[in-house]
């Protein structure tokens, strides 16, 4: 915990500094939501096709989902999503006239959430 997933349009592959975004995001999650730094995990998923309304071209999407254990206040969740949007403004710089649609949400992990770690 936290489990962070970032879905982003393929058109942003060269315009999105994903490693720097993840490091800054982990810092924000630690500062705002009291997570432990080694617990922060981010996965990036590139999506090949994006359609916005009737348009299949000229748009790019980034959506960040943060899965946290229950117990954060609504204020904390809102502060965290606002921080994510600010970080996206810093680390995603679309070129070629792309319209960027960025969003973020915090979800509580289901009580059934479990994990394990294994070193090889």
Give an overview of the whole structure.
The structure is a single chain. The protein is α/β, with parallel strands linked by helices. The chain has one domain: Macrophage Migration Inhibitory Factor, CATH 3.30.429.10. Helices cover 28% and strands 28% of the residues. It has 2 helices and 4 strands, in the order βαββαβ. The protein has helices at 18-33, 74-91, and strands spanning 3-9, 41-47, 59-68, 99-108. The protein has a 4-stranded mixed β-sheet, covered by helices on one side. Strand 1 (3-9), helix 1 and strand 2 form a beta-alpha-beta unit. Helix 1 (18-33) packs antiparallel against helix 2. The longest helix is centred in the C-terminal third of the chain and has 18 residues, at 74-91. The protein is globular. The two termini are 21 Å apart. The model has no long low-confidence stretch (mean pLDDT 94). InterPro entries: 5-COMe_2-OHmuconate_Isoase (IPR004220), Tautomerase/MIF_sf (IPR014347). GO terms for molecular function: 5-carboxymethyl-2-hydroxymuconate delta-isomerase activity.
């Amino acid at each position: 915990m936290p489990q962070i997933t970032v879905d982003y349009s393929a058109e942003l592959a060269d315009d999105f500094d994903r490693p720097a975004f993840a490091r800054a995001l982990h810092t924000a999650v630690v500062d705002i939501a009291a997570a432990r730094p080694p617990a922060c995990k981010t996965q990036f998923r590139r999506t090949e096709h994006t359609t916005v309304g009737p348009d299949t071209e000229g748009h790019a999407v980034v959506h960040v989902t943060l899965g946290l254990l229950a117990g954060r206040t609504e204020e904390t969740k809102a502060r965290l999503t606002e921080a994510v949007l600010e970080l996206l403004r810093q680390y995603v710089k679309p070129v070629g006239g792309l319209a960027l649609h960025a969003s973020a949400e915090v979800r509580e992990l289901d009580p059934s959430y479990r994990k394990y770690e294994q070193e090889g």
